[in-house]
Amino acid sequence: MNGSLEHTLAFHCAPALAGIKPSNLICCDLARYPSLDRELRALNRQLNPRGLYFRPVCRCSGRVLLLVYRRALLERHLAQPDARAFLKRAGYPSGGLEATLIHFGARLSQAGSFPHEAGVILGYPLADVEGFLRDGGKNYKFSGYWKVYGNEEEARALFVRFNRCREALCRRVAAGKSIVQLFSAA
Question: pTM score > 0.85 for this model?
Answer without folding.
Answer: yes
